[in-house]
Amino acid sequence: MTYTPRKLLTFEEFITQYGDNTRYELIDGELRDMEPTGPHEAVAGSLAGRIYVEIFRANFNWLVPKNCLIKPLYAEATALRPDVVVLDKAELNQEPLWQKEPVICNGNTIKLVAEVVSSNWQDDYARKVEEYAFLNIAEYWIVDFRGLGGMQFIGNPKQPTFTICQLVNGVYQQEKYRLGDPIFSYLFPDLQLQLDDIMPS
């Protein structure tokens, strides 16, 4: 039996073939199917709506794009597609690709990323923690509404968990919240949010 490795994609090939398909992202040249389900999309949509309301209420000069890829400048074949991303409008004129594609390259344009965990939870809890910290993104939210992550990430017994990663000296400090816990964000200190509020029905 011979092993045939999967063909790796370049960033340009990914954009051409999958740029408009929100089901996929690219990590080190490997196509990743994010396997979105209805409940997954409902949680992401509810979270994005609550964040947008808070941006509007606080009069921040930020936006929540419908679709957005993150291409770290140092990574040749990576295009991350967070479930929710908050961008600083004032920084968009520094983005080399934004006028032609919804692609962000500079970490200082990104105020927040949020990932809703699905079956590929290892990416959300490990790889993306490193990627987003390296980009100096102030906050990274991991919304594990089904309790899928490994026990080292969400505890034992496994249960729905909302993790806020706050960047401190280049490393994320992580705070876990369970159902019923009021969630605290340094970026949105007045945000009234519990995991219960965004659970799918």
TrEMBL record:
This is Uma2 family endonuclease. Keywords: Endonuclease, Hydrolase, Nuclease. Signal peptide: none annotated. Transmembrane segments: none annotated. GO terms for molecular function: endonuclease activity. It comes from the Bacteria. The lineage of its organism: Bacteria, Bacillati, Cyanobacteriota, Cyanophyceae, Oscillatoriophycideae. The keyword Nuclease applies. Residues 11-195 form the Putative restriction endonuclease domain. InterPro entries: Nuclease_put_TT1808 (IPR012296), Restrct_endonuc-II-like (IPR011335), Uma2 (IPR008538).
